[in-house]
Amino acid sequence: MSADHRMQKVTVNLCRIIVALTFIFSGFVKAIDPIGTLYKLQDYSEAVHLQGIVPDWLLLAIAVLLAAVEFCMGIFLLFAIQRRLCSRLIVAFMAVMTLVSLWLVIADPVKDCGCFGDALRLTNTETFVKNIVLLGCSIIVARKPLAMFRFISESNQWIVINYTALFILVSSGLSLYYLPLFDFRPYHIGVNILQGMQIPKGAPRPQFETTFIMEKDGQRKEFTLNDYPDSTWKFVDSKTVQVSEGYVPPIHDFTIEDNKTGEDLTKKILGRKGYTFLLIAPHLEQADDSNFGDIDQLYEYAGQHDIPFYCLTASTAKGIKRWIDITGAEYPFYMTDATTLKTIVRSNPGLLLLKDGTIINKWSHNDLPGAELSRPITQSTLGKMPKNSVPGKILKIVLWFILPLFLLTLADRLWAWSKWVRLKEKKNKTKLYQLFNQKENKMRKKIVAGNWKMNLNLQEGVALAKEINEALAAEKPNCDVVICTPFIHLASVAQVLDANKVGLGAENCADKEKGAYTGEVSAEMVKSTGAQYVILGHSERRQYYGETVEILKEKVQQALKHGLKIIFCCGETLEERESNRQNAVVKAELDGSVFNLTAEEWKNIILAYEPIWAIGTGKTATSDQAEEMLCYIRSIVAEKYGKEVAEETSILYGGSCKASNAPELFSKPNIDGGLIGGASLKTADFKGIIDAWKK
Fold this sequence. Notes:
By secondary structure, the protein is α/β, with parallel strands linked by helices. The chain has 24 helices and 16 strands. The strands form three sheets. An eight-stranded parallel sheet has the order 15-14-13-12-11-10-9-16. The chain has a five-stranded mixed sheet with strand order 6-5-4-7-8. Strands 2-1-3 form a three-stranded antiparallel sheet, with no helix packed on it. Helix 1 packs antiparallel against helix 3, helix 4 runs antiparallel to helix 5 and helix 19 packs across helix 21.
């Protein structure tokens, strides 16, 4: 592998890791807070004036599916699953997201795109830059998807696909029913709300400047507080803008107000010592009232133990009255901003328990405390902060998702490694035969056999046989020469050939001894013409006439019984080679038809490897491809009959062999000649291949 190629693979895989991890993180933080993603989609709907047109249930479904797709694409890219498809989908996804972020930069309809939920807030400009980088990385990956190394084999990818989809959808479902697994918002358990609202001493404060628009004698002019004009100027309007940023506390928008009196109750409620229940319902008109009995039970419990219980809402008086009518609620209702309430708890309604102004627990309306209400709050788990720490939650994810995938990957890689070791051993074994055969292949007969197939009438066939005979009589060949003709030529051709220079063979024989088999020619009949050889197992007989390994097994027995030498063909299709099954195919063909023979019978077998995709197509296997396969065939002959027999077995190559490529093919130590098709029909072409043994 060249240095440039190695650098290319490193670059592709580095970009793949960057994109995959970003997608996984982005998808996960949105998936475990689908309500938060819903709120962000509502912001976008409002920005494009679709608010109220797209129903919330549809936006929620989109939020869940969007997060799941993003998470799954990240995992699939990380594991290199469906590399081409996945990389192209990610490019398309990032192209759309980049355009959206560009619109956010230009139009500024929302201040935070929400791409990482509440876990990581980016400005619109930062989001656009991030998307440009990810788009560039995804394009690099999509251009060379096959450069991505796999963490898991194709046969096991379905496990990762299904398990990932199931995990992320279940995570979203649980977060919808209960509360988000991780709470990245300022109002998480353990936070003291009043302290979160404070600005540290010395911290810079945001600076604002107010401009007044005044009018006098038909002339309008802007003034600041420093140069505010006299009373002769008439006030028209004013505007206030922030001129410098300052420290903004994590909690800066939390207020509790008595709507009836207008009194600010924030410090009174949050500064109280002891426990306080806060029922959070941004919009009571849309709140789930199926568990109002549990809420009433909690209110009664709070009253029995002198614990304040308030409902914070942004609903109107009409909405509050409707809730009271439905549930019979007797607890007081106070006003808080709707966005703040949605941020506090992802449930409508949801429950908050404070102790000395600190949030010590949260509940969804689907999971309100019940069993703990039998004892005073100081004596039950209700009044204690839960132990489900962040490390504990991370451990759950590791145990339920990361560990199973890691174990699957480990098992898969160990299996792949063991296959690689076995293949390496086989290749090493094959190489040993190859090295040995470079010295010993002189023991084997070199053969060039012509296969006329269904060509030439009787007169043309006899004439060609005479030409070949005369050409070889004039110049003795360095190899055995055989011509295999159609049945009608055999007897006539036998009379014009010098059997000491050219052998004669048939292209086929029957699998039966004799009988009512109209049109068939038995091995005995072939032998009676003067032929010494027969071709069996040719791919065209297998393909067009349905010859199976069982039929060929019978033909081999018949041919041997009547003293014929067999040129037995084997080879794979293009599809089988592209799926790397050529070795298994060839071994199965030999196993089923000739590997049942005794070592003595095997002496009459000549093997011919013919890649089917190279027969009559003009395509030729490279000399290295041919050598590799013939070396493998010799190795499995050795496994069956021993090394000595394998060294004496002649193995030919068949498949568009010509005078131009024969020297290179025949120079390989395991190629002992050729089974020649079209080039055997012209004396000059056939003689050119035969003469390759002199070079």
